[in-house]
Amino acid sequence: MTVTPGEEVNGWGNPMDLFDEPFPDVSTYEDFHTIDWLREKSRDTDRHRKIASRSKESFWEFTKSLLDAWSGWVVMLLIGLLSGTLAGVIDLAVDWMTDLKEGVCLSALWYSHEQCCWTSNETTFDDRDKCPQWQTWSELMTGHAEGAGAYVLNYFLYVLWALFFAFLAVSLVRVFAPYACGSGIPEIKTILSGFIIRGYLGKWTLLIKTVTLVLAVSSGLSLGKEGPLVHVACCCGNLFSSLFSKYSKNEGKRREVLSAAAAAGVSVAFGAPIGGVLFSLEEVSYYFPLKTLWRSFFAALVAAFTLRSINPFGNNRLVLFYVEYHTPWYMAELVPFILLGVFGGVWGALFIRANIAWCRRRKTTRLGRYPVLEVIAVTAITAVVAFPNPYTRRSTSQLISELFNDCGPLDSSRLCDYVNDPNMTRPVDDIPDRPAGPGVYTAIWQLALALIFKIVVTIFTFGIKVPSGLFIPSMAVGAIAGRIMGIAVEQMAYHHHDWIIFKKWCRPGADCVTPGLYAMVGAAACLGGVTRMTVSLVVIMFELTGGLEYIVPLMAAAVTSKWVGDAFGREGIYEAHIQLNGYPFLDTKDEFTHRTLAADVMHPRRGEPPLAVLTQDGTTVEDVEELIKETDYNGFPVVVSRKSERLIGFVQRRDLTLAIKNARQKQEGVVSNSVVYFTEEMPLLPPSCPQPLKLRCILNLSPFTVTDHTPMETVVDIFRKLGLRQCLVTRSGRLLGIITKKDVLRHMAQMMNQDPDSIMFN
Over the stretch 102-128, which tens digit does the pLDDT of each residue have? Predict the structure, then answer.
């Protein structure tokens, strides 16, 4: 005889009805575990169905359904406003604190060097960066701006300020928010793939990362703020997601918001809203439906508009490095552009290997125990070596801006110190190629030294315990190499215009070669070599500079750098750091071509203990608690009986723990020898038996299964495209074993002759 949950059992009333509703905290996940995408999708579909049915009941319910539909757009608006505001504040603070290392504005202490001299009436055009209101530290303290004593004092205070900023940054990170260090993009990629890292996108991380990012960039370290701004924007996304239950209670929906937030982060980092959307799609997002594309576009638009309203660059433009070249590029120049692509690919591959080797050494030796000392040492070396060279002393963004610049008749930079023809009567915008003057040759030597310095120091800087982005340092390396090559090609064209390669397109007295364009192409090549981006990189670069006409050279360099880089190793810097940290990231770009079967990967294997399972009606509460205590599995298959092992479903460990805990607290009569039922109907029990516990509501009745003869190529594809957490292996309905995401990743690592134990998390 059986009874249904609605009937009375032994005078207990309806004890089972209490648990036909979801338990508190059920369906949430533990830290450092992977979410179940199918489960989250199913829960969201159920939620939509309930809202749709209730909306017909009353006007209030209809209004609530409209608010639910618009909540996504409200979240995007808030993310765009906050991330744009924070980016503007960071840009202004970095400009001021970077200049603080060299001097101070007497008329307004909060003005940067450029802002200080804007308002001065005593500035000459040749010395536009010098004004009485701005004084270097030596002028302020000794009254002398020139001489050995003034140089030494400025040198000493430059290093001292750099050390102070770096020490403050690493101390704040270590004490208040350890997750605020690094770029953040490898972890963001992993989180968007379904991994849980509690606190990584929290309020403290947002606050500390914003403050320490300003300090780290201002210290003069070879790092950028662009990567960390993606982390900051995702923290904003997580913050506003928690205000709406639609996102706070569904990890899958939350990740749609975070994908859009990543787009907003790149939008404000580079002033490139379209590039931000493509970056999120190409580089960081794991699940990117069409709805997320629209919302990403909206968030990036609002963020860019907010940043433009703040106008941190003071040029009334959104772009960071606006350029205006007056000469078109020629087909023959594709050769040096492709060579820059080769350089970018080689540099990217070498950088990834060297940086990963250094980071691995940091993790496995005593070096990792002294993060503060490491930051101080790197900062001291950087500041001491950087100060004597004017191209390394200034901020990296200012350096790139100067390298991208096209020389005009009014430029006072050494890079524009050409020998002018006094009889020249050409328009200002059409200056012919000229022989290089002494300033240009001096600048080339200084740039060559700066190139070596940037290449070496960036390897040791990326990964230290302060916020550190890689976009700007990589672009600086490429821009320096590109500018040097551009000047070389320009001088060859001037002195050897009768060569066959120049004869057709470069006549004497013409403006043929633009060195700034080579710098722009080199920057794209090196950034592509390190990150292996292609489409989003090209769009970011032309949005960043306003150089829409030069898409083809950028495309040629980006594709070449990716091909060359992939020849040395297919993973970019972010994938390499994900692998180094052992995160369970199943990259959609990886191909699995080995001929293995599900039976070769599943657990238990031959010689291993049998699989831990629960039966549908023969297990007591004590047995379940003992199984949870003795194992660390994420969940347990439920079978008809241990003899038949016919599969019924799958129950999550956390759901099981919380359900039993709630039952003991809220339901009288549930004791250790109470029988746990996963069946739809319960048998009639004698009055002497303890109250049973029905847990069918937490049972997944449709777990994903494959047969033991399924090729692993198919299994990997299923895990990748469906975002599975685990997959059960059966034969004719009988349970044989289980394959988890961790098993798949370890098997792939083993097949590629890598250490399978490097995959540390579930």
Answer: 888 888 888 888 878 876 666 554 555
Strand, coil or helix: 240: helix
Chain-centre distance for alpha carbon 429: 40
Amino acid identity at 279: F
Predicted confidence (pLDDT) per residue in 256-281, tens digit: 999 999 999 999 998 889 999 999 99
Rounded average pLDDT over 667-679: 85
Cα 518 vs. chain centroid, distance in angstroms?
28
* Integer angstrom CA distances of residue 241 from 143, 522, 759: 55, 39, 30
- Evaluate whether 566 touches 532 at the Cβ level (below 8 Å): yes
DSSP letters for 80-133: HHHHHHHHHHHHHHHHHHHHHTTEEESS-TT--HHHHHHT-SS--STTTT--TT
The Cα–Cα gap between 79 and 539 comes to: 22
Contact 269, 475 (CB under 8 A): no
Axis-axis angle for helices 148-176, 371-386 (nearest 10): 160
Nearest to 192 by CA among 584, 485, 705: 584
| Close Cβ partners of 287 (under 8 Å, ≥ 6 residues apart) | 37, 192, 252, 255, 256, 259, 723
The yes-or-no verdict on residue 654 having pLDDT over 60 is yes
The CA distances from residue 540 to 199, 528, 531, in Å, are: 30, 11, 13
What CA–CA distance (Å, rounded) separates 177 from 76?
26
Locate all alpha helices (DSSP H) within 569-652, ordered by sequence. 573-581, 598-601, 621-630
Please answer whether residues 717 and 593 qualify as being in contact, where contact means their C-beta atoms are separated by less than 8 angstroms: no
CA-closest candidate to residue 344, choices 470, 517, 530: 530
Q: What is the mean pLDDT of residues 40-48?
A: 89
65: enclosing H helix or E strand = helix 59-100
DSSP string, 161-178: HHHHHHHHHHHHHHHH-G
**Cα separation, 757 vs 311, whole angstroms:** 49
Q: Where are the alpha helices (DSSP H) in 464-611?
A: 471-495, 500-503, 515-531, 535-545, 551-568, 573-581, 598-601
* Mean local confidence (pLDDT), 289-313: 91
Per-residue pLDDT, 185? 94
pLDDT computed for residue 286 by the predictor: 85
Measured distance CA(468)–CA(166) in Å, rounded: 12
Rounded to whole angstroms, the Cα distance separating 728 from 550 reads 52
Q: What's the pTM? A: 0.89
Q: Which two tokens stand for residue 275?
A: 């590039």
The three-point CA angle 195-199-204 to 5° equals 150
Q: Under a CB-based contact definition with an 8 Å cutoff, are residues 273 and 50 in contact?
A: no
How many angstroms separate the CA atoms of 28 and 270, rounded? 36
DSSP category for residue 689: S
